[in-house]
Design a protein that fits this description.
mainly alpha; Mitochondrial carrier fold; two-stranded antiparallel ribbon; 11 helices; 3% strand; globular; disordered N terminus
Length: 368
């Protein structure tokens, strides 16, 4: 998310990709992804358990949670810390390359679209003899960041979807307890991330791993698109604020534009930009995430039931999931787990992007 150091007051999208070598982006994004997931995975588990449909397990209904904190406390109390990190192996092994592909992909698409837009404006300016500087307009910049986020998600989902399927199925399986609250037995279909991957491939094939590609892209595509659009705009405002506050003329480039680099923005500004963009984008797209999760969890239950000759009620599509959630609970049903999603994504995006910007700048200074 935000890659190259910039020399434009509008956004990093107008900078050349050569200003930030690929190695710096790769190392910065990998480091950021690992740190973020270590800190925030329990919050993601809480979100998954809140959003999962309430069904019967072993003749008993799944427990419901009053909120993210309740999900964290009760999961830890009844199942221990290991349950909070269900699917973590898949996230680290597969999610780290996915994060690298996601962030470097965004930088590539952003710079490519920016160059194309600048070239088009340059030709337009030449034709009109206006002599304008060929930089993308504000509407073009919004569109560039939106489309770059969507394209980056489409590419990275090749890695993310299998990881997401394994992670969420591991997260929603539970240890069951008896009526006194004491441990009774495990209701674990999978014994680990690798076992989950093997079972899914054996019972559902590659289609089971990638069947959720469309649902995942429909959920995280809009999130990424909105996130990058909000994040880049917030960085632009931050750079303008830093420039106005800083009387140092070095903050100006030769063409009179602000040249504050992303990695040089004050830490609190990076935190505010990433947290605000992450919170808003995650809340707006929460119904899509809820529908995506239910489809993915449903496939696991359907595959298990099929081996026993049973039939399960299935959602036919994301639209069917959204309709069912609305019928059952209205708007509140659609946004079930939205608070947990925000609580997870706000710190996740904050840690990821702050570490990314700072680590990328560190590697650039260290490696040259």
């Amino acid at each position: 998310m935000g890659s190259d150091d910039t020399s434009s007051s509008r956004s990093s999208s107008s900078s050349s990709s050569s200003s930030s070598p690929l190695l710096h982006d790769v190392m910065g994004s990998a480091t950021a992804g690992i740190i973020s997931r270590i800190v925030t995975h329990p919050l993601d588990t809480a979100k998954a358990r809140i959003q999962a449909p309430v069904t019967s397990i072993g003749g008993r209904p799944n427990e419901t949670f009053r909120g993210p904190l309740d999900a964290l406390v009760r999961t830890y109390r009844h199942e221990g810390p290991r349950a909070l990190y269900g699917g973590f192996g898949a996230v680290i092994v597969g999610g780290t390359p996915g994060t690298v592909l996601y962030l470097t992909g965004y930088a590539f698409f952003r710079d490519s679209l920016s160059s194309a837009a600048s070239g088009w404006r340059g030709r337009e300016a030449t034709a009109s003899s206006a002599g304008d500087t060929p930089t993308p307009s504000h509407p073009q910049e919004f569109a560039i960041h939106f489309m770059s986020g969507m394209l980056a998600e489409a590419v990275s989902c090749v890695v993310y979807v299998p990881v997401d399927v394994v992670k969420e199925r591991m997260q929603v399986q539970r240890n069951l307890t008896d009526v006194t609250g004491h441990y009774r037995h495990q209701n674990h279909q999978y014994n680990g991330s690798l076992d989950a991957l093997r079972q899914i491939l054996r019972t559902e094939g590659m289609r089971g791993i990638y069947k959720g590609y469309g649902a995942t892209l429909a959920s995280f595509g809009p999130f990424s698109a909105l996130y990058f659009m909000f994040y880049e705009q917030c960085k632009t405002w931050s750079k303008e604020y830093v420039h106005r506050k800083d009387s140092n003329t070095d903050a100006m480039s030769d063409d009179g534009m602000i040249s504050v680099k992303d990695g040089d923005l004050p830490f609190i500004h990076l935190v505010a930009c990433s947290a605000g963009a992450g919170a808003l984008a995650s809340w707006l797209t929460s119904p899509l995430d809820m529908a995506k999760l239910r489809l993915q969890v449903q496939r696991g239950k359907s595959a298990a039931a099929a081996t026993q000759g049973k039939q399960t009620v299935q959602y036919s599509s994301m639209l069917d999931c959204l309709r069912s959630a609305y019928v059952d609970g209205g708007l509140r049903g659609l946004f079930r787990g939205a608070g947990a999603r925000v609580i997870h994504f706000a710190p996740a995006t904050t840690i990821t992007m702050t570490c990314y910007e700072k680590c990328r700048a560190f590697y650039a200074d260290s490696l040259g």
